[in-house]
Amino acid sequence: MKIGIVCPYSWDVPGGVQFHIRDLAEHLIRVGHEVSVLAPADDETPLPPYVVSAGRAVPVPYNGSVARLNFGFLSAARVRRWLHDGTFDVIHIHEPTSPSLGLLTCWAAQGPIVATFHTSNPRSRAMIAAYPILQPALEKISARIAVSEYARRTLVEHLGGDAVVIPNGVDVDFFADAEPRPEWQGRTLGFIGRIDEPRKGLPVLMKALPRIFAECPEARLLVAGRGDEEEAVASLPAELRRRVEFLGMVSDEDKARLLRSVDVYVAPNTGGESFGIILVEAMSAGAPVLASDLDAFAQVLDQGAAGDLFANEDADSLAEAAVRLLDDPRRRAELRERGSKHVRRFDWSTVGADILSVYETVTDGAAAVAADERTGLRARFGLARD
Question: Domain Glycosyltransferase subfamily 4-like N-terminal, which positions (predicted)?
Answer without folding.
Answer: 14-173
